[in-house]
Amino acid sequence: xxxxxxxxxxxxxxFRYADEVPGPVKFVVKRKAKKIEKLDPNDFPxxxxxxxxxxxxxxxxxxxxKKQLQF
Length: 71
Prior knowledge:
Layout: H1 3-18, H2 23-33, H3 46-50, H4 53-65
């Protein structure tokens, strides 16, 4: 993926959540987000590596509505 595409994604995430998240929540999220540095895509199950972002979002929404997520 080229650098412009990566920056576009980062900018989108920053813009989308900049004003919608209260300060105390941002503090907690930043602490949890440090775990992203430890992520290794090779540790993910093959099903996750193969799914599209759209499929992933729908899976998360469905699991959330069914109270299957444990966080």
